Amino acid sequence: MNRVPRHPVLQSAEQVMLTVESLHEAAEGWYQYGEIEGWSHRTKDDRRSWMGRLEAFLTARDLDFCAEGLRAFVVALMQGNDGGGRKPLSPSSVLHAHIILSAFANWCVAEGILTDSPMRRIPTPKQVDPGIDPFTDAELEAILKAAGESRCKLRDVALIRFLDDTGIRASELADLRVSDLRMTERTAQVRNGKGGRPRTISFGAGTAQALWRYLRDEPRKPAEPLFTSSRTGGPMNRSSLLQVCRRLGKEAEVENVHPHRFRHDAAVRLLRNGAHVFGVMSLLGHTRVATTQIYVKLAEADISKLHANASPIDNLLTTRRAR
After folding, report:
1. Structural domain count, the chain
2. Are residues 158 and 283 in the same domain?
3. Is 194 a catalytic residue?
4. Same domain, yes or no, for 116 and 184?
5. Number of neighbours of residue 320 by Cβ within 10 angstroms
6. Could you say which of 98, 214, 264, 295 is catalytic?
7. Could you list the residue range(s) of the whole structural domain that residue 190 is in?
8. Which residue among the candidates 194, 199, 213, 258 is catalytic per the annotation?
9. How confident is the model at residue 7 (pLDDT cuts 50, 70, 90)?
């Protein structure tokens, strides 16, 4: 493989595009940079996948890595016609692709491969309201009741409490080992969070009790997975976790029960109960305050609604008028 040019003097004075062949070589250099930076396996696979998808699109349409080609690619993602009979992507997925391509283009500028990023001419896709829908108290209680009556009740109760108490991501939960728990401190170490960033999460006494009962009934070695699949006996993965959530939701007669909804629920409940926004940001592993602020707005709206129904003065005046 030829070396990727590393300085603009090796190219034209205004290098703002790459051929597909040059794009492929530059991308390989970017992946090597990621190895040094310590990208997680998920991050590496995700970025390789998106770059490969872009290369295939540009090759099929005889386009270059430039503003024109990138604009056509983003539009194709939105319309679902970038190739392979794919469906249109959600706004959040298009934004994710935009972030990855911008990161690559910025790296190319820093390395001298490009003199300017063509992604600067591609507008950032607007992000719609993610439609956060936390559980009601009745829904969460019904799910926990269903967990307590399931065939794997000790595991399922511990699992649901842990999901809702910590707001952990599904992929992070699947990676947990028994040794990651610190029962005395009521914390767990997420070793490989989003972007490869580790963090410590906390849980309450009720969740600690459920975990203790679960591990007492199913003892295992420190290096073994914390939550296991009842079907395979191996580590619970994202698919088996989703199946458990759907089963409990069906038994509890609660719609749309999935792992990420527990993450939303945890964030809103923490904020309702007085947790500081930066504490919630740290617990959930958010890198941007704006992400956590989405939950803040929902929690504040909920508190305003609560006060409208339970205002001490309004209720006092209403009681007086009724006399």
Report:
1. 2
2. yes
3. yes
4. no
5. 8
6. 295
7. 137-310
8. 194
9. very low
